[in-house]
């Protein structure tokens, strides 16, 4: 009876939602800040039909966004750039899938060099935002969702502490661990932010160039 009671108690603890009220409130405040930023961008744009705006999930979505945003990109460059950055960083911060399509859109709208610079900046900023948010509230969530991966990551980081930058670069350019997991778990395993930042900034350049280049080629194909 005593053993069964302990087991039931353990199951109840494991089944609980891993975040406290204040942690959820903090995450909600971050969401509110992003929404406020997008609202400010929207209010500075001219009155028009923006029903075409949505997160791209396919090449067809990218084509629709490109066709509608091309004119705005030339006339309202700052607003389009700020809006793009807010959306991309928000997706990175909260691990929302689909940033690869945002990278393709950057190539389609801004070309190779501007597109790569924009994607590397927003991806690094979003990863950094995820890092610090996770440092505040992420430990129970990461332990709840990825306990085995977290243990593996902790062991590897401890083993490679003297050459940690090399290891983090390796993780960024290979599929050993998902980038979203690296972003949220790094503060849990005591990866210093300057190591995290450098590895992210440098390691994302190859993938950013490839996806942006594909976006440019797709745009040229549509114009052909």
From TrEMBL:
Annotated localization: Membrane
Domain VTT: from-to ranges: 96-215
InterPro entries: TM41A/B (IPR045014), VTT_dom (IPR032816)
Keywords associated with the record: Membrane, Transmembrane, Transmembrane helix
Any GO BP annotation: autophagosome assembly
Membrane topology: Multi-pass membrane protein
Record-annotated membrane-spanning stretches: 21-45, 81-105, 112-134, 193-212
Gene Ontology annotations for the cellular component aspect, listed alphabetically: membrane
Entry keyword annotation includes Aminoacyl-tRNA synthetase: no
Record's protein name: VTT domain-containing protein
Lineage: Eukaryota, Viridiplantae, Streptophyta, Embryophyta, Tracheophyta
């Amino acid at each position: 009876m005593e053993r069964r009671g302990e087991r039931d108690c353990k199951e109840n603890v494991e089944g609980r939602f891993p975040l406290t009220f204040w942690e959820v409130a903090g995450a909600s405040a971050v969401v509110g800040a992003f929404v406020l930023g997008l609202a400010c961008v929207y209010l500075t744009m001219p009155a028009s039909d923006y029903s075409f705006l949505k997160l791209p999930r396919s090449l067809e979505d990218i084509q629709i966004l490109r066709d509608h945003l091309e004119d705005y990109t030339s006339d309202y460059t700052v607003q389009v750039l700020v809006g793009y950055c807010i959306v991309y960083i928000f997706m990175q911060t909260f691990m929302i899938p689909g940033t690869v399509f945002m990278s393709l859109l950057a190539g389609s709208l801004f070309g190779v060099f501007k597109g790569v610079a924009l994607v590397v900046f927003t991806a690094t900023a979003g990863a950094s935002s995820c890092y610090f948010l996770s440092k505040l509230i992420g430990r129970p969530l990461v332990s709840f969702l990825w306990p085995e991966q977290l243990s593996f990551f902790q062991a590897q980081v401890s083993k490679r502490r003297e050459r940690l930058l090399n290891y983090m670069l390796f993780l960024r350019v290979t599929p050993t661990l998902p980038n979203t997991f690296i972003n949220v778990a790094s503060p849990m395993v005591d990866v210093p932010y300057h190591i995290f930042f450098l590895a992210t900034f440098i390691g994302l350049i190859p993938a950013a160039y490839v996806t942006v280049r594909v976006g440019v080629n797709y745009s040229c194909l549509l114009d052909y």
